[in-house]
What does this fold into?
Amino acid sequence: MQDIVIIGAGPAGISMAVESRTAGVPSERVLVIERAHEHSFAIRKYYPESKVVTANYKGFEAVCTGTMCLADSTKAEMLSYLDKAILDFDVRVRYNETVWKIHQDEGGRGFTVLTDKGQYETRVVAIAIGILGKPNKPAYPLPASLKKRLLFEIVSTEVRGTRVLVVGGGDSASEYAQHLAHRGNEVALSYRRTEFSRMNHINRDGLLALGQRGQVRLLLGSDVASVRDVDGKPEVSFAGGATETFDYVVYALGGSAPHDFLKAAGIEFDGPEPVLKDGYETTVPGLFLLGDLSAGRKGGSINWAFNSANTAMKRICDRYLR
It folds into this structure.
């Protein structure tokens, strides 16, 4: 019997395990389940190596409330910090294991977590799977023949000296455009709005500076209507009739919450957002959401993920692990 099972070994999940250990829960009664072969897989996949992980996120002051806290760091420094936390707090992580179902036991006294490798009985479940692992896709169809030319991340494919269109207007879009420009690519960025309102000031200022120097062509107020295969390359048609051919199109449209999985666990929704109570507890007693799943549409930072674990742990200790 576990005291707490944590689904997802990203910053929120690791921090939840650390908060549990800090609160006095024995290592053998805290379990993290991760479907990938290493922790923070989405960060490794979607964050470019040059990304600076900022403590101050979208203008919000970087205030840390729990055990873990992050200053401005590189991607490598952040991953090393999480590596050290796992070792220092003796966090048990089961990698390469996928959770299929969360079943609340009769009487609401605990849960059975079923995976592709077994099942676990636990008093509390914390879901910290994030949303980056399920990137949003455009409404128009994408040609299967262009699978290697239409990207949703830029870590797995080496892109140098080519013509690239980045689609999106958030922090990831800015980071992708800057990274690609610094690697000698001819970069254009298409965003349907006329100004960048979703970026933190560092990404916005950096992108605008590249635009002023002509290193990134900013197509503000543009909207991609369709993409088709022309001689093995994506031909992009914009609303209004203009067309342009690129070597690659990189989509940075954000991610979406795994609604079906959460609803199957019995969690109630208010429109697109899960209903959360104090401490990020869901409408299912003893079932908590952490990280991006607790932050809502505005998204959250790494420190938000850390803080959400600390907040949830206080309620868990008060109500379930006295």
Summary: The chain has a mean pLDDT of 91. The domain at 2-133+255-319 is CATH 3.50.50.60 (FAD/NAD(P)-binding domain). Helices lie at 11-22, 41-46, 75-88, 171-182, 201-212, 259-264, 292-295, 302-319. The first strand starts at residue 2 and ends at 7.
